[in-house]
Amino acid sequence: MTIIKIMAYSLTAMLVFFSNRLLAEDGAYQIELIIFSQAMPNSEVFEQAASQIKWPSALTELSAYKKPGATTLDESYDALSKVPVYRPILHVAWIQPIGGGGLAAPVHIQGAEGKLDGYFQMQHDQGLQMTVDLELGSRFDGDSGKAVIYRLNEKRFIKLNELYYLDHPKFGVVVKISLL
Asked: How far apart are alpha carbons 40 and 167 in whole angstroms?
């Protein structure tokens, strides 16, 4: 391979990498989440009885963002609804502008019944990352009779337009993020 071909391939790779970053910095993301409970047998002991979320500053309510014209996870939501061990809790989608500084505003995620609470945040300074910190409250644990809170706290590098499944023994989240 000649030096010119190597330089051409390197330049092409750099352009693809940086053009995605440039597009992302001026555009917006469409973020879509499905949150569901799962009634799978497990032997883990959950003793959290109070919230342990470390809330970020400048939390933005989901209602502050524009809703997209179409969602892409409707079939996934329908499929989850048909399986008896899963119970969909929330299906939300929003369009979030990409702010400067690499850290997008954290978005408050809340279920209608008040049992689900937490936030979602994206970071795009050194690759695309998402942070999901959610708690799902249970009225009472069947064995002990005490109130229990289940927490899913995860930070993950992601790629655009791919499905991600975040798992906890008691609930899960399906996430898809696209660039508009």
From this structure: 12
Number of H helices, E strands in the chain: 2, 9
**For the stretch 116-146, what's the b/e string if a residue is b when 16 or more beta carbons lie within 10 angstroms of its beta carbon?**
bbbbbbbbbeeebbbbbbbbbbbeeeeeeee
The beta strand positions in the chain, using DSSP E, are 28-38, 60-61, 86-97, 107-110, 116-123, 129-138, 148-157, 163-167, 171-179
Q: Between 163 and 22, whose confidence is greater?
A: 163
CA–CA separation, 49 and 123 (whole Å): 30
User: Residue 32: which of 92, 109, 112, 98 has the closest Cα?
Assistant: 92
Q: Return d(Cα 58, Cα 46) in angstroms, integer.
A: 30
- Tokens at 138, concatenated: 């249970």
pLDDT for 72-112, tens place per residue? Answer: 999 999 999 999 999 999 999 999 987 777 889 999 999 97
User: DSSP character for 63?
Assistant: G
